[in-house]
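Sample intake sheet
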Amino acid sequence: MNTEETSHKAKNRKPIFWTLTAFFILIGLAFFLLWLLVWRLEESTKDAYVQGNQVVVTPQISGHILSVSVQDTDLVEEGRILVTLDTIDRGLAFAAAKNTLAETVRDVVGLFENVGSLRADREIKQAEMSKAMKDYKHRKNLVKIGAVSKEDFEHAEATFVASFAALLGAQHALRGAIAMTENTTLETHPLIEKAKDFVKEAYVNLKRCEIRSPVHGMVAKKAAQVGQSVDPGFSLMTIIPFDQMWINANFKEIQLKNIRLGQPVTMKSDLYGSDIIFHSRVVGIGAGTGSVMSLLPPQNATGNWIKIVQRLPVRISLDPEEIKKHPLRLGLSMDVSVDTRDTSGRMLPKPPPKGPLFKTDIFQKQEAGIESIINIIVKENSIFTFGEDEKEG
């Protein structure tokens, strides 16, 4: 009876054994196929982090902070006023510059008017000299025959010499006045241009009391406080633009053999978990390892040497549309996988396109409106229209 039971149990174990054997063989085959078709053609690392530009906001002029309009984690648009400085001193300087421009315009108007006055004076001196010369020549002939006295002749001669000298003086004065106005107009006169520059400088300094965000992004590291005295270069806060972020994935040097620019990348963030997958491409491979770029690079030529596998940063871009839906933060860790099947790409990048990669125009806008102010001042103080007096005459 015992022999029959043992034989029966042995027969029952055989199907289970072969079933388990086939199951494990299939699992092994599946893993082999995964390695052959997928894992063998991928390089992955968890040593990857979100990097990005950190735009430091600093004042361009000195002053005391009157107001702060934002705080950490606020999302601001480009051009938004962040901090306002005291405007009293800058406002007074702007008013003084406008008054100086108005005074200069009137002075230059006087220079142009003086040319006409000196030109008329020269004509008078020319007429006087012509009359004196005729009298001198007439008396010169008469004195020979005794028709006029010698004293009368000498008086005519002195009058002629004096009138000639007066004419020369009038001509030199006219030339000097013309030199102050020649080849220029009232609006383009050097003295007025100089005064205009002072007005523009004062206007821009007044505008600089409003410190604006140079980019669209999130406020971080706010240090500005109301009443604080600040100077140019002082860090008021930092703006983190979400459209200027990328991933630095630190791959081991033995993983870089098949990594090329342009290869597709999939990434996961601990912030969103495995449900959200970011898609992008390799855009650059670092020029040096982290140890070489550190503040104190290793000195391998001294002492005992132990080989340590180095890591090289690989720059990976981020899809702007994906970042809008699932924004990341600087410093977050990422799980990166690079598809290395296509190795036809480059390892060295092409030269970047000409022109700026990042820019802002908020500083150029600081001069907006000043030209109309200057034109009004010039127009209001141009009290004469040149040639008007000649028409009236």
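Comment: The CA atoms of residues 47 and 339 lie 17 Å apart. The longest strand covers residues 273-285.
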